[in-house]
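Reminder to self: tokens first, then the designed residues, so the page reads top to bottom the way the pipeline ran.
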């Protein structure tokens, strides 16, 4: 929760670390209220239909499935940053891109690359 430059109240709701040791993703909710908090000005929600997660404990590479959107959501990026110490690598796959965070010489770097969509189109054309 924070006040934005217009003095409105912004509220972000993101999935949390569960008591059973599961890191959860799949939904995020953003609301903007008037400065008094009495009026909802806007909302921008994303929900995959159910929350999914990965148990922490054994470090491993994981993939977050966001293929229903073209680019990583803020919640997906938050997940990668927040849970980076629990997994060896966290990848985000969207309909058009693949993204991940990696550490080099003590600094974190974000890699965001476009998928080779021509291969997908060739496969679709073969099916016709």
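Designed residues (128 positions):
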């Amino acid at each position: 929760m924070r006040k934005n430059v217009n003095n409105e109240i912004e509220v972000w709701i993101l999935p949390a670390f569960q008591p059973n040791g599961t890191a959860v993703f799949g939904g995020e909710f953003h609301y903007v209220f008037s400065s008094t908090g009495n009026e909802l000005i806007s909302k921008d929600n994303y929900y995959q239909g159910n929350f999914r997660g990965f148990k922490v404990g054994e470090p491993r590479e994981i993939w977050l499935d966001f293929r229903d959107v073209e680019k990583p959501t803020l919640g997906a990026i938050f997940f990668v940053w927040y849970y980076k110490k629990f997994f060896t690598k966290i990848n985000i796959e969207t309909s058009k891109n693949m993204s991940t965070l990696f550490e080099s010489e003590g600094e974190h770097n974000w890699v965001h690359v476009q998928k080779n969509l021509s291969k997908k189109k060739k496969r679709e054309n073969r099916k016709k």
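Residues 2-127 form one domain.
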